[in-house]
Amino acid sequence: MVEKKPAKLTRSPSGARLKPTNLPGVYSFESTPPDLKRQKAGVKTLKRHGLPVRPRGKGSETAAHLWDSMMSRRFRHIHPHLRVTSTLNPPPGAGAPANSDFGSGNWSGGVVKAPRPKIPPRNLPPTKLVAVYSNWVVPTVRRPEGAADYDSPWASAAWVGLDGYGNAMNNGNVVQAGTEHDVDDSDNVYYYAWYKWYPGPSVAIDNFPVAPGDAMFVYVRSGGLIGVLNYGSAWLVNHTRGIETSVFWFGPPTSVITFEGISAECIMERPSQTMPDNKEVPYNFVHYGEIAFTSFGACTDDGTFFSAKDLYTLGQKSGLSDGQHSEDIVCRPPF
């Protein structure tokens, strides 16, 4: 039996106004009017445009301060033009820790797990992490020292996402969005913003410019279900250029993937590519210097907030990239 996508939408389940993009089943939120003061807008107005409401849950003080800062600025909204790529961002493979709390075959950065209930019965499922966000500066990348042309391309991806770390029911479901930074054998460098619901491929946002040194903010949310389909959304802001874009899209059907909300992450990753035989093969990793995930936050469906201090750090077992705690999560090569 083939599971069909729902009919063309004009509103999300929360009431947000949606505009179709060039990809079927993918939408963008309607931009706010030029004269709207977002910081003073009501909950209905914010939801109408797919914007988060001001945090008020447990531990939300830092998140509320960030919200005030974001909503006090005006960004030019770009309606996204999308392109499906062959890049994959799979969950972390196992590996011995480097200078981090835990090791991974392809992730470096930080992860927080959804808390289990503190009152009996303790076998109840954990609350779900449903939103995650962070700032970072797009790194300058190049081919690694001494790397030959035949080792190309070299790739890296910085992102925030939900699920993927310790998923029990799924084969690595991850809802995520971020920036990609790649180098080819002629030392041409390519930067772009993207989103995805793994195990699907990355979708590039071609008309949303990203360059090294740009200050980014990315917010990802999993909304739940429409019929048999998971859906999620992402809000991406390039502070340096004063622009924003948004995406509302469907993940795999529940017969393939069930969103668990078991983890939230900020990650600098060695991504993979899909080969003609459908196998996933990692790209060689770029040299990137350093990237810091600042103002990290995540929240659960009961309104509990988490910050960088709650994260465990991850390091690639290859030794190419470690996630380390300072006031934020900083990823860098350990040499």
Q: Which regions are unreliable across 5 or more consecutive residues at pLDDT < 50? A: 1-7
- What gap, in angstroms, lies between the N and C termini? 53 Å
What portion of the residues fall into strands of 2 or more residues?
35-45%
Range of helix content: under 10%
Oligomer designation: single chain
Number of domains: 1
Q: Name the shape in a single word.
A: globular
Q: What string, H for helix and E for strand, traces the elements in order?
A: EEHHEEEEEEEEEEEEEEEEEEEEEE
Q: Let me know the number of strands.
A: 24
The total count of helices amounts to 2
Main beta-sheet strand count, sense and barrel state: 11 strands, mixed
Structural class: mainly beta
Based on CA atoms alone, the radius of gyration comes out at 19 Å
Explain how this protein is built.
With 335 residues, the chain is mainly beta. It has one domain (18-32, 39-95, 114-308). 5% of the residues lie in helices and 41% in strands. It has 2 helices and 24 strands. Strands 1, 2, 3, 8, 13, 14, 15, 20, 21, 23 and 24 form an 11-stranded mixed sheet that branches. Strands 4, 6, 7, 9, 10, 11, 12, 16, 19 and 22 form a 10-stranded mixed sheet that branches. A 3-stranded antiparallel sheet has the order 5-17-18, with no helix packed on it. A hairpin with a 3-residue loop joins strand 23 (322-325) and strand 24. The radius of gyration is 19 Å and the shape is globular. The model is unreliable at 1-7 (pLDDT under 50).
List the helices and strands and how they pair.
Layout: E1 18-20, E2 26-29, H1 43-48, H2 61-71, E3 76-77, E4 82-84, E5 87-88, E6 102-104, E7 107-113, E8 129-137, E9 154-162, E10 174-183, E11 189-198, E12 203-205, E13 215-226, E14 229-238, E15 243-253, E16 263-269, E17 272-274, E18 280-282, E19 284-285, E20 291-300, E21 305-307, E22 312-316, E23 322-325, E24 329-332
Parallel strand pairs: 3-15, 6-22, 9-19
Antiparallel strand pairs: 1-2, 2-15, 4-12, 5-17, 7-16, 7-22, 8-13, 8-20, 9-10, 9-16, 10-11, 11-12, 13-14, 14-15, 17-18, 20-21, 20-24, 23-24
